[in-house]
Specification:
Blueprint: E1 5-11, E2 15-20, E3 25-29, H1 45-48, E4 52-54, E5 57-61, E6 66-70, H2 71-80
Antiparallel strand pairs: 1-2, 2-3, 4-5, 5-6
């Protein structure tokens, strides 16, 4: 199954745009999140800019180690702001 996430696009200010198969979009402000232990690996702007959609996950990489988060977790984080 391909999943319901079509793309993940990094935006300025550590925001992330998610585009879904049904045509919906969500923009998530990750600025506060990258200061937490869970998301510290994507605090570096170059790593944050590597975001891409893979199925139902967003995956970042530092060139060696991928870091994946299900988009449902990202949407939950958005609702907490």
């Amino acid at each position: 199954m391909d999943g319901f996430l079509i793309s993940a696009r990094p935006l300025p200010g550590q925001r992330l745009e998610l585009i879904f198969r049904n045509g919906s979009t969500a923009v998530i402000n990750m600025k506060r999140r990258v200061g937490t232990v869970r998301f510290a690996r994507i605090a570096d702007e170059a790593v944050f800019a590597s975001a891409k959609a893979e199925g139902d996950k967003v995956v970042w990489t530092d060139g060696k180690n991928p870091f994946a988060v299900y988009c449902t977790e990202l949407l939950d984080a958005m609702m907490m702001d």
